[in-house]
Amino acid sequence: MSNPSETGNAGTMGQALKEALFAGVIAFGMFLLFVGIETYQDINNALVWRTRWGLLAIFVIVAAVGRFVTVAFIKPHIDRRKLNKAKSGVLEISDKKSFFHKHFLKIALVLLLIYPFLSLMIVGKQGSLKYVDNFGIQILIYVMLAWGLNIVVGLAGLLDLGYVAFYAVGAYSYALLSSYFGFSFWLLLPMSGILAALWGIILGFPVLRLRGDYLAIVTLAFGEIIRLVLINWTDVTKGTFGISGIAKASFFGIWSFDTGATNNFVKAWGLSASSVYYKIFLFYIILALCMLTAYVTIRLRRMPIGRAWEALREDEIACRSLGINTVTTKLTAFAIGAMFGGFAGSFFATRQGFVSPESFVFLESAVILAIVVLGGMGSLTGIAIAAIVMVGGTEVLREMSFLKVVFGPDFTPELYRMLLFGLAMIIVMLFKPRGFVGSREPTAFLKERRAVSGSFTKEGHG
Amino acid sequence: MALETITMTNNTLLKVEHLSMKFGGLMAINDLTFEARRGEITALIGPNGAGKTTVFNCITGFYRPTMGMITLQRRDGREFLLERLRDFEITKLAGVARTFQNIRLFSGLTVLENLLVAQHNALMKASGYTILGLLGLPAYRKAVDVSIEKAKYWLDKADLTDRADDPAGDLPYGAQRRLEIARAMCTGPELLCLDEPAAGLNPRESAALNTLLHSIRDEGVSILLIEHDMSVVMEISDHVVVLEYGQKISDGTPDHVKNDPRVIAAYLGVEDDEVEEVISEVEGGRL
């Protein structure tokens, strides 16, 4: 028993060395221009470049050593564990779920509700700004956007690459209507949702007879059209300068968060001045909006229209043979998805106090879509987890100054955001091709509700 | 029993007149005329490529015929010209449901959900186009209960009650066929169009299918089916239409069709001139 394993060991070591060398070569090729060369502007504003061989060497070494360790130690270890499990003949399926697993959603909701106060208690007012705003609000905006897009992509199976257009419509609706007419946030929030839904229908009407790749390309183009209109219609939108000084949301008109106002929230409650209260208020607004999105999605899934969306994703021709008007069904999915995008957009405008076309580039659409796909199409929990990982992860990168110890003092981790984003996506897709939560909850049942495995559900054909 | 239903309701449900369908230069159907009577099982048979599925697609609105008229008269007297309706309207208004040659189930939805999707139009109305349903009004809840009862009824008929909460894609082939028929029945049709329902079934599943089709006919729903398996056709159908190269070559009771020399020639593959010979022989004999 020991003899073959030893020779096997020597074999794996050789194999590991070979693969490590190979990984190093590939990493060198990949990162040579990425990392090895850096361009910057010198004092005369001329673009010059310098080399960073040290950093490149670290990247290559990390790749090679990582590959070596994986092949030589981690993989044999996993294989051995699998083998032992198979030998023992005990299947790891138990009906008993842990307390945490069973009440996961309730625990998560309670945590979210007390999150701002927790952060106030732990890191104080100044520290909370970062945790409530950069983490809490930022992540929740993406959760809401992804849940909105989930209706279009996850439920109805229509690949929409231009979702950010509706986000932009919502944001600019709020920015323009509030600065030109002085309407309040609470009036404009539903209005921007409705306007975005209207744009969803306007786009959807000519486009929804297209399917699959064609639909994806046209929606992509639509997203770009909206952005280009925002850039070039300077009379109204002020072009690339954007619209600044957008009014803050008020506490339902009772208290204001403007420092000069007589009914200022801080003054009314006799608190010491800090912008953290406004951030906490915004946190609860976006949390409520997220909950609304989730509630509507869950309710709609159990309505005939929601079932028709999912049926559409599974098989459009069968839908038509059952007397379902696929055009209106697709349009409602588009419009409702767009509406939530519009809500999120108007919230974004009031939170930033500034909107410009730069916030609505294609990359945003791609990130939202990536969150939906990574989370598991159709699953609200999975998507929320994916949003936390993706958006929270990139925010966490800013905090990782310890990486400077490894990569040298001039290493700025947030610049590698997209690189790591892509890496994370590849890893998740390799190990969980159906996303974090691949199964689907049936909307009706006779005897017991059993989740449908992801291997049966389809992704839709547009 | 079967004979009784024929004599009782011997009127026309579906009338196909001078139907032609051209794909570019190919004449898939050429001046086809036939009718399907209420309460009967009408079979459409013919060799591969005869245009049977094309006829189906014309009747159910998936193709728009180049020429011809397809009239459907509902029990309440309303008449519909199917070639003028869109595909989903044919199911919704005219009461024609269909199944597909290659099964098209919603494989990621459960069996029960498949049957509920089929009742979409009724439920949409009951839910006030979603708006009233979101408020959770009792009228909608009642409609949901009714729809689940209807689904249960057809689950029972198709012998699928045990699998109601399983994903449709998880069912064995024969059960998927039955589910597709049950789903079509949940739309509440007057005419059920089945495209090769017995294809790929083993003898036991085939027998179960026959029972299901008979019980559907006994409920007063007429069936139009395409079938290759002659034993199935001869056993269950009341009326057979035979197509070859997009043209009708025979039309009548199973016995009549079985002995028609043109049908025999089409199925056994006799040379063209020989067909003429056989026909003249038979007709000469008759005269």
Automatic annotation (TrEMBL), chain A:
<feature type="transmembrane region" description="Helical">
    <location>
        <begin position="104"/>
        <end position="123"/>
    </location>
</feature>
<feature type="transmembrane region" description="Helical">
    <location>
        <begin position="135"/>
        <end position="156"/>
    </location>
</feature>
<feature type="transmembrane region" description="Helical">
    <location>
        <begin position="414"/>
        <end position="431"/>
    </location>
</feature>
<keyword id="KW-0472">Membrane</keyword>
<dbReference type="GO" id="GO:0005886">
    <property type="term" value="C:plasma membrane"/>
</dbReference>
<keyword id="KW-1003">Cell membrane</keyword>
<keyword id="KW-0812">Transmembrane</keyword>
<dbReference type="InterPro" id="IPR043428">
    <property type="entry name" value="LivM-like"/>
</dbReference>
<feature type="transmembrane region" description="Helical">
    <location>
        <begin position="361"/>
        <end position="394"/>
    </location>
</feature>
<dbReference type="Pfam" id="PF02653">
    <property type="entry name" value="BPD_transp_2"/>
</dbReference>
<dbReference type="Pfam" id="PF11862">
    <property type="entry name" value="DUF3382"/>
</dbReference>
<feature type="transmembrane region" description="Helical">
    <location>
        <begin position="53"/>
        <end position="74"/>
    </location>
</feature>
<feature type="domain" description="High-affinity branched-chain amino acid transport system permease LivHM N-terminal">
    <location>
        <begin position="15"/>
        <end position="115"/>
    </location>
</feature>
<feature type="transmembrane region" description="Helical">
    <location>
        <begin position="214"/>
        <end position="233"/>
    </location>
</feature>
<protein>
    <submittedName>
        <fullName>High-affinity branched-chain amino acid ABC transporter permease LivM</fullName>
    </submittedName>
</protein>
<keyword id="KW-1133">Transmembrane helix</keyword>
<feature type="transmembrane region" description="Helical">
    <location>
        <begin position="331"/>
        <end position="349"/>
    </location>
</feature>
<feature type="transmembrane region" description="Helical">
    <location>
        <begin position="187"/>
        <end position="207"/>
    </location>
</feature>
<feature type="transmembrane region" description="Helical">
    <location>
        <begin position="20"/>
        <end position="41"/>
    </location>
</feature>
<feature type="transmembrane region" description="Helical">
    <location>
        <begin position="277"/>
        <end position="298"/>
    </location>
</feature>
<feature type="transmembrane region" description="Helical">
    <location>
        <begin position="163"/>
        <end position="181"/>
    </location>
</feature>
<dbReference type="GO" id="GO:0015658">
    <property type="term" value="F:branched-chain amino acid transmembrane transporter activity"/>
</dbReference>
TrEMBL record, chain B:
<dbReference type="InterPro" id="IPR003593">
    <property type="entry name" value="AAA+_ATPase"/>
</dbReference>
<keyword id="KW-0813">Transport</keyword>
<dbReference type="InterPro" id="IPR003439">
    <property type="entry name" value="ABC_transporter-like_ATP-bd"/>
</dbReference>
<keyword id="KW-0029">Amino-acid transport</keyword>
<dbReference type="InterPro" id="IPR027417">
    <property type="entry name" value="P-loop_NTPase"/>
</dbReference>
<dbReference type="GO" id="GO:0005524">
    <property type="term" value="F:ATP binding"/>
</dbReference>
<dbReference type="InterPro" id="IPR051120">
    <property type="entry name" value="ABC_AA/LPS_Transport"/>
</dbReference>
<dbReference type="GO" id="GO:0005304">
    <property type="term" value="F:L-valine transmembrane transporter activity"/>
</dbReference>
<keyword id="KW-0067">ATP-binding</keyword>
<dbReference type="Pfam" id="PF00005">
    <property type="entry name" value="ABC_tran"/>
</dbReference>
<dbReference type="GO" id="GO:0015188">
    <property type="term" value="F:L-isoleucine transmembrane transporter activity"/>
</dbReference>
<comment type="similarity">
    <text>Belongs to the ABC transporter superfamily.</text>
</comment>
<feature type="domain" description="ABC transporter">
    <location>
        <begin position="14"/>
        <end position="270"/>
    </location>
</feature>
<protein>
    <submittedName>
        <fullName>ABC transporter ATP-binding protein</fullName>
    </submittedName>
</protein>
<dbReference type="GO" id="GO:0015808">
    <property type="term" value="P:L-alanine transport"/>
</dbReference>
<dbReference type="GO" id="GO:1903806">
    <property type="term" value="P:L-isoleucine import across plasma membrane"/>
</dbReference>
<dbReference type="GO" id="GO:0005886">
    <property type="term" value="C:plasma membrane"/>
</dbReference>
<keyword id="KW-0547">Nucleotide-binding</keyword>
<dbReference type="GO" id="GO:0042941">
    <property type="term" value="P:D-alanine transmembrane transport"/>
</dbReference>
<dbReference type="GO" id="GO:1903805">
    <property type="term" value="P:L-valine import across plasma membrane"/>
</dbReference>
<dbReference type="GO" id="GO:0016887">
    <property type="term" value="F:ATP hydrolysis activity"/>
</dbReference>
<dbReference type="Pfam" id="PF12399">
    <property type="entry name" value="BCA_ABC_TP_C"/>
</dbReference>
